[in-house]
Specification:
The chain is an all-alpha fold. The protein is about 90% helix and about 0% strand.
Length: about 400
């Protein structure tokens, strides 16, 4: 979209992607909650519960996806109304939304499959599924947009088709693992009232936590839109680089989920502490490397995203703030993984609520005098607050790992 004739194309995809992030990732508990319960069942050697730990979130995913499809019109009206983009961005963004919304079943079910595969330590399968999803998405989007010249609709169709192909692969990978482990489906266990209540409790906590996280990104983009299409596009590109950071650091956070979650399920405090230390050390090393890379080569990366001079200049102006993000963000990602693995989601919920309030206060104080620089500083404060607030709960979590 950065190589289309107008900055509105970048802004439209940014707004559309934000809406889907808000809608879909609000149900991110289907991935995060599933990993924690699955890892603990795996650590306890309970194969029947492993099957139930997959079935429960898959049932929820289907129900939530149906609700999203039925409510797509009010979701669009509310979201575009709150963000308030320019007329050009609004028009293009609605085209993107009306196509991608039909991927809801595939997206939510894939969340559950990813969480379950992580929980049974099938990291290579998760990598395969993720690479397949994104690889097909990239290839189809390039074909539809550049070859067929479908514009923003091509970007939406590329993602939609990739989501359903990834879902099919995910089913195949899960079936292979289930055949290897044996066991059988037990409907009474799947529908066990106490386990369902525990799942819903954890999922509600993660839902609130994720809603607060997505609210922060929504506020960031909404404020960006007030600065005009060019600065909105520049911030959107930088946020895409932030997404790369998030996925990279999430790799070690996912490792912490599985390893720390398994140790927590086995009530082995020494192993729990060791898993936390090792995964965090590697995550911190990656954060330093990525930060240095962005400082040195971030300007080159921006040329790949857009050839619109004004947008590139806008992104370059605020690139130093983005380059600091990996160092500031790594602690929050890592602690998220540790707490998810232990299914201590109430602490995650409370920490995120506090972090969102800190972000809103920082934005209110810094944006009026500093403009977009103030917005980026507020964002870094938000990421730092996530790590600090969760860190306050960590000693209690480690004590609980001993049983």
């Amino acid at each position: 979209m950065g190589h289309q004739p107008d900055a509105a194309f970048v802004g439209a995809v940014a707004v559309g992607a934000l809406i889907f992030s808000l809608v879909y990732w609000s149900f991110g508990f289907l991935r995060m909650g599933t990993t924690g319960f699955t890892a603990q069942a795996d650590g306890a050697g309970d194969d029947a519960e492993l099957r139930a730990a997959l079935a429960r979130p898959m049932l929820l995913a289907g129900a939530f996806a149906l609700a999203i499809l039925l409510l797509q019109w009010p979701i669009a009206e509310l979201a575009f109304g709150l963000i308030g983009p320019s007329a050009a961005v609004d028009s293009l963004g609605r085209i993107y939304f009306e196509i991608r919304i039909w991927g809801a079943p595939a997206t939510l079910m894939t969340y559950a499959l990813l969480g379950w595969l992580l929980g049974v330590s099938r990291a290579r399968d998760v990598l395969l599924l993720t690479v397949t999803l994104n690889g097909i998405n990239i290839a189809l989007t390039l074909f539809f947009v550049l070859k067929l010249e479908w514009g923003i609709a091509g970007a939406a169709w590329g993602t939609l088709i990739a989501e359903y192909l990834a879902l099919a692969l995910g089913f195949g990978l899960a079936a292979s693992e289930l055949r290897r482990r044996g066991g059988r489906w037990e409907l009474p266990r799947i529908l066990d009232r106490l386990r369902l209540i525990a799942l819903l409790r954890v999922n509600f906590d993660i839902f609130v936590r994720t809603l607060c996280l997505e609210a922060a990104f929504a506020v960031f983009l909404t404020i960006s839109a007030k600065f005009g299409d060019t600065r909105l596009a520049g911030n959107a590109i930088l946020m895409q680089l932030q997404t790369f950071v998030a996925h990279g650091l999430d790799g070690f956070a996912h490792a912490a989920e599985v390893l720390a979650g398994s140790a927590f399920g086995a009530r082995n405090r020494a192993t729990f502490r060791r898993m936390v230390e090792v995964s965090t050390l590697w995550a911190a090393a990656l954060a330093l490397a990525v930060s240095a890379f962005y400082f040195l080569f971030g300007g080159v990366l921006l040329t790949l995203f857009t050839d619109i001079p004004e947008v590139r200049a806008a992104a370059l102006t605020y690139l130093p703030w983005l380059a600091l993000s990996p160092i500031v963000s790594v602690w929050s990602f890592q602690l998220d993984g540790i707490f998810i693995g232990a299914t201590r989601t109430g602490d995650m919920r409370n920490a995120m609520i506090a972090s969102l309030l800190i972000f809103l206060l920082a934005a209110a104080l810094l944006v009026p005098p500093l403009g977009n620089h103030g917005l980026w500083i507020a964002f870094l404060i938000f990421m730092a607050a996530r790590g600090v607030t969760l860190g306050l709960f960590y000693p209690r979590l480690e004590r609980a790992s001993a049983g």
